[in-house]
Write a structure and sequence with these properties.
Elements: E1 3-6, E2 9-12, H1 25-45, H2 49-55, E3 61-63, E4 70-82, E5 85-89, E6 96-100, E7 108-117, E8 122-126, H3 127-137
Antiparallel strand pairs: 1-2, 3-4, 4-7, 5-6, 7-8
Helix pairs in contact: 1-3
């Protein structure tokens, strides 16, 4: 089957329409933020949280470091934060430039981690990493 190279990607010539999209990084980040928010909201409201995770394809076992041990999913951590300001290096100074946010700019952020353990190891899988991988995997 002949291949076309378009925008650096190899594609196939088909007799039918073939949609193949690539989001710019900023759009992908926005899509991931929406997906993550919806995933967390769904988990929190799910009557059967284990079933929710299984339907989402969350692995209940993972390979540990070196591929030797099997880690088991034991906890789902939710952490809520409110960013009340920002700090960045100042030009020509060892002090930080600090900008506190006005009240209307302060927003709640909730993050989720999947916690896996074995007798020798404990790891956290950030839900954004899990969902980002799934998002890229299904975009092809």
């Amino acid at each position: 089957m002949p291949h076309d190279i378009v925008n650096g990607h190899i594609g196939h010539n088909h007799d039918h329409d073939h949609l193949h999209s690539h989001l710019p990084p900023e759009d992908e980040a926005a899509a991931l933020q929406v997906l993550t928010t919806q995933f967390i909201d769904g988990f929190v409201s799910a009557a059967d949280k284990s079933a929710y995770l299984r339907l989402a394809g969350v692995p209940f076992e993972r390979t540990g470091k070196g591929g030797e041990k099997t880690l088991k999913l034991v906890d789902v951590e939710l952490k809520t934060e409110w960013q009340v300001g920002t700090a960045s290096p100042s030009f020509g100074s060892r002090e930080l430039s600090y900008l506190p946010f006005p009240g209307e700019m302060i927003a709640e952020r909730t993050n989720m981690s999947l916690v896996y353990v074995s007798l020798a190891e404990k790891t956290h899988l950030d839900i954004r990493d899990f969902l980002g991988h799934r998002l890229r995997e299904h975009r092809l």
